[in-house]
């Protein structure tokens, strides 16, 4: 079957651009959050940390999820969750205003939770993207997969650069051009998310091994196999040694 390889490649590239933009702009939000919500450095660091937590979880479990649900379903879930993450950013200020009236003692901690979970949901999307787009591009371009995977992963630094420039120009009191409401700056990644969604989601995706086999048990047996478990243990031991 013929697939729109070019469209799917560009859309996959844009998922990483969106992730890079979202990460770069979030790192510039400390000043506005301190002024508006009285969030301290420790709370800001925790929110940034949440931006990695879900990514790590999905990197570990994402391969299994891809084989269970397929590329398109998982990409659709990531698309929707990314927009939910952006929506939570816009909800923070009105929620905080309400909490200041009804529960002023806990207003800051409550809005911290909103921002924390927004970052966590965002990081879940990042992990799902990585789980989907790497095998997808390798399957679409079997004759030259290394070349196209290298192009694909240029999306992350490209997004970081774009997000960094945007943040410098429009986020914070020292913005180069003018300070915009922080919500618009941090949610700017959603423009790219909508672009890749419009481009990719109507398209036909190739089937994963799990979908082709018709049985998830067959795929799961590979993950539960002795060689795979030995590899996981060896990898953990290596990381533990580095930490020590």
How do you describe this structure in short?
The protein has helices at 5-26, 30-37, 41-69, 71-102, 107-140, 145-152, 155-170, 182-186, 189-200, 209-213, 216-223, 226-243. With 244 residues, the chain is mostly helical. The protein is elongated and about 60 Å long.
Features:
244 residues; mainly alpha; Growth Hormone, Chain: A; 12 helices; 81% helix; elongated; transport; Major facilitator transporter; transmembrane
Structural class given helices, strands, pairing? mainly alpha
Q: Secondary-structure element order, as H and E? A: HHHHHHHHHHHH
Tally of contiguous helical segments:
12
Q: Mean pLDDT, nearest integer?
A: 89
Roughly how many Å is the radius of gyration?
A: 20 Å
Family: Belongs to the major facilitator superfamily.
GO molecular function: transmembrane transporter activity
Main location: membrane
Domain Major facilitator superfamily (MFS) profile: 8-244
Describe the overall structure:
The protein has 244 residues and is mainly α. It has two domains: 201 residues, MFS general substrate transporter like domains (Growth Hormone, Chain: A), CATH 1.20.1250; 31 residues. Helix content is 81%, strand content 0%. It is elongated, with a radius of gyration of 20 Å. Helix 1 packs antiparallel against helix 5. Pfam families: MFS_1 (PF07690). Its main location: membrane. This is Major facilitator transporter. It is a multi-pass membrane protein.
